[in-house]
Structures are given as C-alpha cells and as structure tokens.
Here is the input.
Amino acid sequence: MNYENDTRFIHDGMNKCQRCCKRLFDIVVSFLCMVLFSPLILLFCIAIKVEDGGYVFFSQERVGLHGKSFNILKFRSLKQGHEEDKPQLIAEGCVENLTKVGKFMRDHHLDELPQLWNVFVGDMTFVGPRPERRYFIDRIMEKDIRYRYLYQIRPGVTSYATLYNGYTDNIEKMLKRLEYDLYYLEHRSLHYDLKILWLTFYYIAIGKKF
Here is the structure.
C-alpha cells in the first residue's frame, strides 16, 4: 500500500517541557553509564584487539533528527575483511562472519554500548525509533512516505518497535516497524519511555532475542 497521498501530519506526543526533561535525562544517565560501564568497555576493547588485532570500534552513517546524517558507534563484531557498511540486510545476520567476542556482544546487545556517546552528544536518545541507513529509508519511503514524520525526533538506542517487532531483515518488516514507530511518536511520554527502557533491560536480562 502506498501512502504518498496521506497528508495527515503526525504530531510529537511530547510537549516542549517533556522534551527538555528527556534530553536532560539522556545527558545525565548516558554520562553516568559511561562512567559505570567504563571497566566493561575497556575489557571489550582489549578482548576485540587481542582476538584478531583489528580496530575496536565500528562507525556507520545513519539518519537522525531533521533528516541529518550522523555516525553511529558500535563495537566491531565482524571479522576483518567483512564490510559492515554495505546496504545489505543479510550482513546483519552472517553468524559465520562474527568474531567470538562479537557473537557474545551481539547475543547480549553489548556491541551497542558505544552508543552511550551518541546519546550524550545528542545524536541519539535512549528511547526512539532505531536509526536507519539512508539507502533503506529511500526504499521505505517508496512504499510509505510517512517515514518523514520520524525526522521530528531523535533516533533511539531502543524503541517500542524493537520490543514488539524485533530485528528487521527485510523491507516488509521495516514497513511494519514504521507503524510501531509512528504510534510511538504520537503517544510518547516520559512515563512511556521509562516503561520501554525497563522492558528492554528486562528482556535482555532474561535472554530474549529481539
């Protein structure tokens, strides 16, 4: 179904005061988490370097607030020589190309710890639509132009869609994810964000796969 003729603007569910509180929360909590998890971050840096001697961090261009590009940070989880930057969905699931450390980090979502820096500097927020590559955004908008409404808010480390739609490995799932993201945009609140954060930590703790 094509929504090119859908002119209904989807407003942000948060008012200006709530958005300021959310940003303050992001700054304070991301800073505290970077300090708290610094030993773990250092441990992973050493483990990645020791395993194959390659680079520790992986940076990839994503699209964020107001449609502007930024570089998302992750721990490198693939073996050297396997390009993570190509716009291929299958690259996310190539288990045979994962390093041993990388597989452990991905299984426990620890490869995303460096995104605390993205949150701290304002590229991202803790809760919001997952940031996507422009290549796939273009494919999504060919089917559903409403993706543009997500440019109102910062992308997140976790999201409502992540909890209930899981990992998106094809365009059909991306379109379904968009429905969740648009629902979140229209209904989000500080209380809703805290609920999503709690469920994310709970699901990770019990080993649920997203």
Remarks:
- Confidence is low (pLDDT under 50) at residues 1-5.
- The longest helix spans residues 16-36.
- Residues 108 and 204 are 7 Å apart (CA to CA).
- The beta strands are 57-63, 69-75, 125-127, 156-158.
